[in-house]
Amino acid sequence: MPPMDEAAIHAILSRVILSRRLPGRTKLGEVRLAELFGVSRERIRKVLHRLGHERLIDVVKNRGAFTVAPDLSEIHVVFEARRILEGGIAAHLAERLTDAGMLRLREHVEREAEALRSGDRATWLKLSAEFHVLLAELTENPIIVQQARELVGRTTMLATFFESSSGSQCGCDEHRAVFRALAAGERGRAVRAMSSHLAQVETRLKPFACTDAGPDLDSLIGEYAAELGGEVSVG
Amino acid sequence: MPPMDEAAIHAILSRVILSRRLPGRTKLGEVRLAELFGVSRERIRKVLHRLGHERLIDVVKNRGAFTVAPDLSEIHVVFEARRILEGGIAAHLAERLTDAGMLRLREHVEREAEALRSGDRATWLKLSAEFHVLLAELTENPIIVQQARELVGRTTMLATFFESSSGSQCGCDEHRAVFRALAAGERGRAVRAMSSHLAQVETRLKPFACTDAGPDLDSLIGEYAAELGGEVSVG
DNA sequence: GATACGGCAATTGTGCACAATTTGCGCCGA
DNA sequence: TCGGCGCAAATTGTGCACAATTGCCGTATC
Prior knowledge:
With 235 residues, chain A is mostly helical.
């Protein structure tokens, strides 16, 4: 079998970590991961440091890498950061949205509605996240796009696993409200719509976010590796 | 002499790069830097990859690290990103600023005015940058603080070298205007004040931002190393 | 004269072996 | 019995040597 490349390992570990399904402060030992993926320790080390820099794990000098505790306060921090950043994005776009941009937004919201109608939950979740990234892209500012992508990424996985399906109906309407305010060029209303939408998503998430004991690292890696088409030797 | 640690090398190279005084696409060879700093190639490599992840340099696989071209469009992108992010911060703070926070802001603005009066240009520049970081800190959100710090850092050095001294008077008034709007709790005015302030800073910078041929890498490293108190063997 | 091919030098990527640090456990003493 | 000390095992950090890739230059051919 061909040795796995760095990008693939990073993708798998990202998913595993973002899924929040393994307990907080789980140690990610270099040798163990190296054996699991069938690669050398140095390759794992590089990925681990990269993940550490992306704040997905906590890397302590001379002690190794650990998952961060999935505590409620962090969820709140992430969502508050999103309210601030995406509030700024909404305010910016309200005064600068082009016709082409408006069209892209409208089409996106309609696709969301379609996915929701047809009961395609997976597609709808993906589109819901992409709505926020799309807004960032409409600013045509690569820095903002990257920051937004990072924050959205940190919440997407949470939604995938924890959002109650009962609340699904709301999301689409909330996106539509943001879109309408932007299309009307009403800055204040757009910011408020975005802010309250994010607050509601956070509320829907909270009751489900406490998972202490989950499956172990080995099986999780196997699971996500299969999902991404990679081969992993799980003993 | 004791070997330099990774943090120190990173600090020096950050300053060198952020100073924008070396031409775009300058190659940062691993062996050359290793000899300059008197450390092994692996240590340099690690710092280089970190800088690459921080987007301060461009790291291409199998080809090495290069400085990014200091073109005007990037300056515009950074400032636009700041207008979006810090606009969001201002909007957030306008409705949530505590008395303690207001006091800290007031004191900071007064210190800026004092530095400006006494003609202490270096202190004033430092305080000017810190005003924006302080605003981010008042949100008490670590993610926002980090993002703001990163963007402010990318503009601070530019200001240090390129801002015309004639325009100095304005900055303090503009900060005061932001502070007043926040203290009054007027969200719209705060956002506008922040946005126009950043736009003016950008305007003041632009005419000075085009430096094609500058000093070479060796002397720059020596210069900044001396500034930080480190020892470097410059042949 | 221009272009395409091939070999060479330089530079980066990778795996390995060793050094340094941490930590858990056991032992001794109070 | 409890606290401190010290050693040993495990784990991470570092430097070195080698492999792989890239870009360049010389040459040959059309």
